[in-house]
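Supplementary Note 3. Input sequence used for the single-chain structure prediction.
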Amino acid sequence: MTNLILRYIHRDEGNWKDRFEACIQNPAGYTAEQAEQMIRECLIDGEFFYPEKVGMSFSVATDWHELDCVEADQEGTTPPTLTLETLLDKLKESNKVYLQPIKVHKIPTGISIRLAVSWLEFLRGMRYEIESALDVPNEIAGLLRKRRNEHIEKMIGRGM
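The predicted structure, written as discrete structure tokens, is reproduced below.
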């Protein structure tokens, strides 16, 4: 049984890169290529994930990291942090929970899920800032959230 090294990257707004790696235990004996394909099937757009949600090191919490590659651990000196099966389960669960608010079938074909999620994160952050600045009462804030969500659903449904 050969362990696997999962290499991943965090890119900031200036395209500076922080590189990370995690040793993954591979009890089923998959090749690095097979394991990478299985992992990519669980990632957002086949390359993005939140390492803090699966118990791996991260650069910025709540920020996406990008899978670089999966390689066989030739040296065998790094202790494994997760099994491959546990990693796959955690990736599936963390991405499913995170993407629930978006109706993926309504995102226009030219828009990646990452772009749609980033846009919604921005809108949610702006709403929070506006509500905080105005000190909006709870019932009004709830009404604003409901109308905003309806508007976003309409825009995504129209392909804007």
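Residues 113-134 form the longest helix (22 residues). The beta strands are 4-11, 17-25, 48-49, 65-72, 82-83.
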